[in-house]
UniProtKB/TrEMBL annotation:
It comes from Bartonella choladocola. Pfam families: EipB_like. It comes from the Bacteria. InterPro entries: EipB-like. This is ATP-binding protein.
Length: 274
């Protein structure tokens, strides 16, 4: 998922060797979610929100993982004109979790307001981020998880019956020069229940899932210890997510799965070529 938008460079409490070695197969797919305003406080100044999120995931544990993401919203404001926001990101992540390439762009009312372009590499317990945009520079950070590895690890923890852990991640967001701390809460596994989203998923809608909530923290932005934002979703063992809620504090957005398609892929090989 976007920011939402997860060796394994995790700071995980109590992760055992058996779980770390278990193979998780993420299914290549494309998913489109319709977005609606869930809640909004008076402080937010938001009177309405509609939009759409498109997410494309491809790759394998041999080839690495490619993600394309687009998040478009129209936000109606109480005391100012409506605002159209278009966020786009493309990334590639090596299967061993050691390298992450990313390009992103944010457009507000047809004006590009931010761009990032760079590559992050992990070696010897340290991450080095080489950026082309927003300006050329090198950033050194501590080792952390990249987005797909984060998702795989959430699935591992869920399958192991663990309900809470902390982690640190890097996803190339903002100016791509910092890490984000996160806490992950995983509910009990839920057997399939038919609804409009599971109908869209076809046979995969018959699989069980876990409710997951991830809270993201950044002391530079929120020094009161509260999360910068929080995302909740239903997570399947194959990496598919649905019924998303993105909570930014003063307002929240719900995303419902409207279109889902699996990519035609070759059966996974037992071993990868060096």
């Amino acid at each position: 998922m976007p920011r939402i938008l997860v060796t394994i460079a995790f700071f995980i409490l109590g992760l055992g060797v058996a779980q770390a070695e278990e193979k998780i197969v993420m299914v290549p797919h494309t998913a489109i979610y319709d977005l609606q305003l869930e809640t909004a406080s008076d402080k937010s100044g938001i009177s309405g929100l509609v939009g759409r999120m498109a997410y494309e995931f491809n790759g394998s544990s041999c080839e690495g993982y490619t993600t394309r993401f687009r998040f478009v919203t129209r936000i109606d404001m109480t005391d100012s004109p409506a605002r159209l926001t278009d966020q786009q990101m493309t990334s590639f992540e090596t299967a061993n979790g050691k390298e992450f390439r990313f390009v992103s762009k944010t457009i507000i009312d047809q004006e590009v307001t931010s761009e990032t372009d760079g590559v992050a590499k992990i070696a010897k317990g340290e991450m080095v981020v080489n950026l082309k945009k927003p300006k050329e520079k090198e950033v050194k950070l501590k080792s952390a998880a990249f987005p797909t590895i984060q998702t795989i690890e959430v699935i591992r923890q869920a399958k192991a019956g663990r309900h809470f852990y902390r982690t640190t991640l890097f996803d190339g967001s903002d100016d791509a020069d910092r890490l984000t701390d996160a806490t992950v809460v995983i509910g009990d596994r839920v057997e399939a229940k038919a609804d409009n989203e599971t109908k869209v998923m076809g046979k995969l809608g018959n699989e069980p899932y876990w409710p997951v909530t991830i809270s993201y923290f950044n002391d530079d932005e929120n020094q009161d210890g509260l999360p910068v934002y929080r995302t909740s979703f239903l997570l399947y063992e194959n990496g598919v997510t649905r019924d998303l809620v993105m909570d930014y504090g003063n307002f929240s957005v719900r995303g419902k799965l409207q279109t889902f398609k699996l990519f035609d892929v070759q059966p996974a090989k037992e071993t990868c070529k060096e």
